[in-house]
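User: Sequence recovery, please. Input:
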C-alpha cells in the first residue's frame, strides 16, 4: 500500500526494539497531525479506550509518548513488568519517568459487561481477521490508511495462525485482538498516510532473550508470532543480552507490512527526527527513532545496471520481459547480440534502474527468462539538470525536456507528444519534431525559462 507514488522516505532505527505505541509516538514526533489522528480514531467501531499524547524523558532524551488507556473491562498486562517477567528471578522492575502530558485525550464509549451471581466478569473480546478488517472498513479513516492497517493485520493473522496450527480464517487474536493493539495499528496506519510515507527502510530488529508471560503461559523470546513474521518476510534479527521482549508482534508486523527496503542510501540527508517512547523498561532507554530522509545527490548520481546473458529464450519472451521491466519502472532496457560458449548466438540483457527497484527488476528477470544469474553493478553518472515542461506551439500543446548546461538552456521534444501531434495533424515525425524544437528554442531565448 505504500508505493502508490513518490512521497517521503522513513528510516526506523530499531536498536531498542519496536512496538505499536513506539511507532505511533515516533510518527507523531515526526509531524503527523494529532488532530487528524484523533478525528479518525474516534470513528473506529470499538469501545473501552481513550488515548493520551504527551512527552516523556528516557535517559534524559525527550520523546513523544503515545498511550492507549483502557477501561477495566479491556485492561491487559501489556506494560506490566511484574506480570510479564515476574516468573523469573530478579525480574526487571519498572523505572519512573518524567511525564509531561498535553492533556489531549480521545474518549470512546465504554460497554459494561453483564454479571453472574453478583460478580462482574472482565471480558476480552477475541476477534477474527475478517471482523477486524470489517471494523476498519466501516471507520472514517482514509482509504490508504485502511489498506495499510489491513496489510498489518494480515501479517499478524498469518503469524498467529502458524503459531497455533490453524488457518488464517479460523485464527482469533488474543493479545493482538485486544483494543490497545487495534488502536496502535490503526493509529500507525493513519500517521503513515498523514506523513505521506511511501518508502520505509528498516535494516534490522534488535531483540532480547529469555522468556515472557502471555495469556497462553510462559513463552520464549522472541515470541512465536515474531519469529514467524521475521522468517516469512526476511527480516534480519540482531540478538542482544537484554533479558526482555524488545520486539512485539505488533511492532514486527508493522515492519513486515510497510518496509520497502533494508538498505540505506550510501549518503542521505535527514529532514526530520522523531522519537517514540516505549512503556516497558529493562535497564536501557526504550526509544524508537524515526527519520525522514532523502538521498544526498548533490555530488554524485548513482544508478544500477543489471546484466545477464541469455541463449535459450525466444524473441517473443525477450520482447515481453522488456515490456514488463519498463512498465515496472526500469529507466532503460536493451539487448546486445553476443556469442557465448560453444559459439551459441545469444543476447545480453541490460537493465538500468534505481537502487530501490533492484528487487523488483531481478524478480521479473528470473520469472520471465531462463537465466539463472544476474550481474549487478553500481555506477556513478553525470546528468544535466532537467525537467519536463508543456508549451503552446503552432501545432498545439507539446511536451519538451528542458535541460541546462553551463547556464544555457536546451529543449528536446518528447517522443510521445510529437507522435500524438503527427497523428492529429497528418505530419511526418521529422517535420513536427523540428518545428516544436525551433519554437521551444525561441521561447527559451526570449522568455528566459529556468529549470527551477
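Assistant: Recovered sequence (452 residues):
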Amino acid at each position: 500500500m505504500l508505493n502508490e507514488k513518490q512521497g517521503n522516505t522513513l528510516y526506523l532505527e530499531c536498536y531498542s526494539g519496536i512496538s505499536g505505541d513506539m511507532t505511533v509516538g515516533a510518527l507523531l514526533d515526526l509531524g503527523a497531525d494529532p488532530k487528524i489522528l484523533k478525528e479518525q480514531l474516534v470513528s473506529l467501531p470499538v469501545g473501552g479506550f481513550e488515548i493520551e499524547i504527551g512527552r516523556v524523558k528516557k535517559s534524559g532524551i525527550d520523546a513523544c509518548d503515545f498511550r492507549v488507556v483502557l477501561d477495566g473491562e479491556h485492561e491487559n498486562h501489556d506494560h506490566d513488568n511484574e506480570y510479564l517477567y515476574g516468573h523469573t528471578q530478579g525480574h526487571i522492575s519498572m523505572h519512573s519517568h518524567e511525564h509531561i502530558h498535553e492533556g489531549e485525550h480521545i474518549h470512546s464509549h465504554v460497554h459494561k459487561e453483564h454479571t453472574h451471581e453478583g460478580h462482574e466478569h472482565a471480558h476480552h473480546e477475541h476477534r477474527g481477521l475478517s471482523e477486524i478488517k470489517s471494523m476498519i472498513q466501516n471507520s472514517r479513516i482514509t482509504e490508504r490508511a485502511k489498506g495499510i492497517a489491513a496489510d498489518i493485520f494480515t501479517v499478524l493473522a498469518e503469524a498467529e495462525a502458524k503459531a497455533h496450527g490453524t488457518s488464517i480464517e479460523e485464527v482469533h487474536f488474543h493479545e493482538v485482538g485486544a483494543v490497545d493493539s487495534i488502536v496502535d495499528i490503526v493509529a500507525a496506519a493513519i500517521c503513515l498516510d498523514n506523513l505521506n510515507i511511501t518508502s520505509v527502510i528498516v535494516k534490522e530488529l534488535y531483540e532480547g532473550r529469555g522468556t515472557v508471560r502471555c495469556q497462553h503461559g510462559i513463552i520464549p523470546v522472541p515470541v512465536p508470532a515474531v519469529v514467524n513474521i521475521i522468517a516469512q518476510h526476511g527480516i534480519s534479527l540482531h540478538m542482544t543480552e537484554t533479558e526482555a521482549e524488545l520486539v512485539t508482534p505488533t511492532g514486527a508486523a508493522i515492519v513486515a507490512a510497510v518496509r520497502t527496503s533494508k538498505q540505506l542510501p550510501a549518503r542521505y540527508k535527514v529532514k526530520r527526527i522523531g522519537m517514540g517512547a516505549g512503556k516497558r523498561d529493562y535497564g536501557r532507554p526504550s526509544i524508537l527513532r524515526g527519520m525522514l530522509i532523502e538521498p544526498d545527490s548533490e555530488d554524485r548520481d548513482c544508478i544500477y545496471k543489471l546484466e545477464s546473458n541469455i541463449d535459450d529464450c525466444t524473441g517473443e519472451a525477450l520482447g515481453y520481459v522488456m515490456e514488463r521491466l519498463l512498465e515496472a519502472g526500469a529507466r532503460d532496457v536493451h539487448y546486445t547480440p553476443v556469442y557465448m560458449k560453444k559459439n551459441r548466438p545469444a543476447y545480453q540483457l541490460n537493465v538500468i534502474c534505481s537502487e530501490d527497484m533492484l528487487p523488483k527488476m531481478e524478480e521479473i528477470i528470473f520469472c520471465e527468462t531462463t537465466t539463472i544469474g544476474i550481474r549487478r553493478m553500481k555506477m556513478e553518472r553525470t546528468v544535466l539538470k532537467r525537467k519536463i515542461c508543456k508549451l503552446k506551439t503552432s501545432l498545439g500543446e507539446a511536451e519538451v525536456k528542458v535541460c541546462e548546461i553551463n547556464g544555457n538552456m536546451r529543449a528536446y521534444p518528447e517522443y510521445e507528444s510529437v507522435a500524438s501531434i503527427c497523428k492529429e495533424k497528418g505530419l511526418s515525425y521529422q517535420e513536427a519534431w523540428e518545428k516544436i524544437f525551433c519554437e521551444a528554442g525561441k521561447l527559451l531565448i526570449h522568455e528566459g525559462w529556468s529549470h527551477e
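Residues 89-124 have pLDDT under 50 and may be disordered.
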